[in-house]
Amino acid sequence: MRVFVVGANGQIGRHLVKMLKESDQHDVRAMVRKEEQADEFKADGIEAVVADLEGAVSDIAAAADGCDAIVFTAGSGGSTGLDKTLLIDLDGAVKTMEAAEEAGIARFVMISAIQANNRENWSEKIRPYFAAKHYADRELMNSSLTYTIIRPGGLLNEPGTGKVKAEANLERDSIPREDVAATIMAALDEEATYNKGFDLVSGDDTPSEALSKL
Amino acid sequence: MRVFVVGANGQIGRHLVKMLKESDQHDVRAMVRKEEQADEFKADGIEAVVADLEGAVSDIAAAADGCDAIVFTAGSGGSTGLDKTLLIDLDGAVKTMEAAEEAGIARFVMISAIQANNRENWSEKIRPYFAAKHYADRELMNSSLTYTIIRPGGLLNEPGTGKVKAEANLERDSIPREDVAATIMAALDEEATYNKGFDLVSGDDTPSEALSKL
Q1: pLDDT by residue (tens digit) across A167-185?
Q2: Residues of A in contact with B85 (CB under 8 A)
Q3: Domain limits of chain A?
Q4: How confident is the model over A190-210, as pLDDT tens digits?
Q5: CB distance B82–A119 less than 8 Å?
Q6: If I label A164, which of A136, A187, B11, B113 is the partner at 20 to 30 A Cα–Cα?
Q7: CA angle in degrees (0–180, nearest 5) for B146-A196-A191
Q8: Fold for domain A2-152?
Q9: Which of A58, A59, A89, A91 to mutate to test the interface with B (most CBs of B within 10 A)?
């Protein structure tokens, strides 16, 4: 699969792009916001395109043209305001879904947040962020795409352990970003994850083992 | 119809509650956030209940129990932050839809904003607000409810003219809040508005005439 990574310059995105680049099974095209970011990827031999999640759906569709799957791992981040939460995490995500449909790319993997599906478990401090993720996920479930919604727990920068736990509903826990990226890799063509959402934290199984049980 | 008005204490809500109260065809139950607000309505002989759009769906469903239609005209307003835009205008609206389904109330009228359906026409200064309204409207269209989405132009406090224009897509223009309320009244059991959304500005037709052309 040629995988279009939205948010390639993010912390999960960088792990994922590297894994896709090293993979025998997949190719990667990184979508980034700035030319400098694209140049950095290109210097590493990685295909990269510049597109803006606040721009037109057709621009995103053109950037993704010819890919077989889209991974949405962009996030407005903690340093921006809730305007970007609405315009990137929600509207930018849905625009990417519409771009996938426009470009005829059926496979879509969304990186969400643990328990974004259950209002009563939204993190109290960042409820508005969870609302944005929740409705992006709902739009994806209502789309025509073959989706997988991965809802990781608290994200850590420490090296991955290679072992995860993936279930429809899990208690809040944490997981290294590298293990989230490895789980995205395993999910891409794992049919057990098609049209499903699941929570993801550190655990005892390899990503492939964990996903095959879904 | 017994009509449950969410946002009864808002500026459109107050006009609407008064019209429903004076109507021979309809009854009204006002939903408000505070006991004092409920007491004011009750002093005017209007049924009123206290419920919180940031609370549980089941509480909203209980508050609406026995009604035949719901009008959502609540808004977080200009004086609050985008946290409330996400939690009231989007999540509160969708909770109200879920409450309608839970309470078996099929008819739902949403007050949105002109061209909230077209990203390219969102008011640049308040794009995040338009995003919230857009996705609330999309959730309604994906629900099982018999919906009408009314998207008024710039809201004025001057007295109504009794004359409006209602079409699927209109140029930005303005309309008195009193005329929006009169259009909601006319839409409640007007089948030409079922499962449709339309822009609304001041015009040359009575609300009934305008809606029958949809």
Answers
A1: 999 999 999 999 999 999 9
A2: 82, 86
A3: 2-152
A4: 999 999 999 999 999 999 999
A5: no
A6: A136
A7: 135
A8: Rossmann fold (3.40.50)
A9: A91
